[in-house]
Amino acid sequence: MKANRSGERVRWWTYALLVLAAFACLFPLYWMFVVATTDTATATKLPPEIVPGGNFFHLASLVFTTVPFVRSVINSLVVAGTIGVGQAVLCSLAGFAFAKLRFRGRDALFLVVVLTMTVPTQLAIVPQYMIISWFDWVDTLQALIIPGLANAFGIFWMRQHLSSALSDEILQAARIDGATTWQIFWRIAFPLVRPAAFVLGLLGFVTAWNDFLWPFVVLKSPEMYTAQIAIKALQNSFDIDLGLAMSGSFLATLPLLVLFVFVGRRMVAGIMDGAFKG
């Protein structure tokens, strides 16, 4: 047994549970790749095949020829990247206002923002579609970007971080030095909670990348498809080629895997930083 940083012994079953948890998380991804290398008959065979086949590159080429997959991935990168950055900045700005600014109705307005998290997303589709139609944004990427630039969870998340990270004394000192509210936010408050904002932006990126329902309602033309809608277009109305569908799903997952390889440790550090501050 090895000792952790606090000097306590880590028992063997702790590692066993971690290995089982890692296996449970990684096996669906591995199974998706296995199906992406075979055909439907092999994928539905009992007992199932657990060894990858040799059809991945053939099926991947079919994905690129059946739907405009590269364009769809680019569209998803534009939408998810813009939403991620927008949530990191706008939710931080709103969280700063609710945490440190004094204005009439602040607490009541924040309560309304929090209560919106109890409303199912599906209920907002009809009025949201009516607004998008009024702006003539149907079948455009801004119909996906604008509604996702801020959300209630992000505002709540950043308010909690700013409440604990930024003291009132620092704000008073900055105002005495002549700093404006925007300067206080951008030069003092936002750098303090940058790890939390980074985590929020990454969560917003992943959520926007995996979103299916709203893009399926709004987007009509193939050149405007996102990656998830392109995967849906691979499926026939009467028959589903599991190998082809899983090839598209695996290719659409690769950008997220690459993203987490580079920023996974920073994301965990940002989450842990918020946990210790709380």
Automatic annotation (TrEMBL):
Stated name of the protein: Carbohydrate ABC transporter permease
Q: Where is the signal peptide?
A: none
Q: Which family does it belong to?
A: Belongs to the binding-protein-dependent transport system permease family.
Q: Where in the cell is it found?
A: Cell membrane
Which positions fall inside the ABC transmembrane type-1 domain?
A: 73-263
The organism named in the record is Microbispora oryzae
Q: Which UniProt keywords apply?
A: Cell membrane, Membrane, Transmembrane, Transmembrane helix, Transport
Q: Which domain of life is it from?
A: Bacteria
Question: Does Transmembrane helix count among this protein's keywords?
Answer: yes
